[in-house]
Amino acid sequence: MLLIERVLILKSLSIFEETPEPLLVEVAAILEELELESGTTLFKKGDTGNCLYIIFKGQVKIHSNEHTLAVLTENDFFGELSLLDTETRSASATTTSEAILLKLDQEPFFELMSDRLEVVKGILRVLCKRLRKQNDLNAELKSRLQSI
Amino acid sequence: MRPSLFQILLSELEIAMAVTGYIKSLKQANSAKIVSSALFSELKKCELNIFYLLSFLYARQKLLQAYNSICTGKKDNIANAIETIDIGVSKSISTKFIPIIEFLHYDHPHISDLVPEKAYIIGQLKDIIHCYPAKIGSWTTATAIYTLHQFHTPECSTILANFNSNGNQLLEETRNFALSNQT
User: What is the pTM of this model?
Assistant: First the structure.
């Protein structure tokens, strides 16, 4: 997979929407490409999460034991927040077909962020946007509650 | 002799105007969508550079405040920022810079709906590629090269074969891929 194609995929992720593409070239360079058989367990519920996965080809099932929560396909991604903080996984992920995934590990990503302030700024902008949205939503809910 | 700040400003404006022209000409070309998007980012970078340069030549605080107002994305704030430039900057600059700001932050109803011909798109991409590295960055150039891979003409092969990536890994890889698609 070409570097330029990896960058285009990264740019489509909300967490990188504010990061300039020339910097995403550096993020793309640390992505690990995984070719997986069907039925491969990526992680189990309760595991410590410290990476982001992007599906380039194939399907991944997000499940809790036998109960399927979602089926993710090409260009879907999961574990976005695990890239930034290390939390336990709330569900398991297993491939349901042969799949090619891109994996972005926390450690090399943090190393890159320590060198590239612009990457951090881009992510901060996204997180601030989300926080503002959430605050607006909370305020709206509060005012609705008060009017009841 | 080192160019003066004013000369640097003028050349940055020239680049911004050229980039605006490329965006207008490729806007309707679906095959070149990633190039248009990269050119928009390139133009935003030019806008920031121009504001920085202006802030050394004119009222610094007012201009940086104007840039921050533009960044809010609110129409009123953008209009105020444009007014600041209109009043506080030499006409030779403001008449070139204001249309660029308007182009970046307002809708573009004046852009033609006509989808450009393949030969025209290739010509524009060739011009963009030739602007590297002096006027256009590596990302935009890479998108132009990548877009060429879908066209199979002797001209595309020549553009790609003659392109010098200056050892840039992204450009080298993209060029090799596009070139391998030509045969």
Answer: 0.84
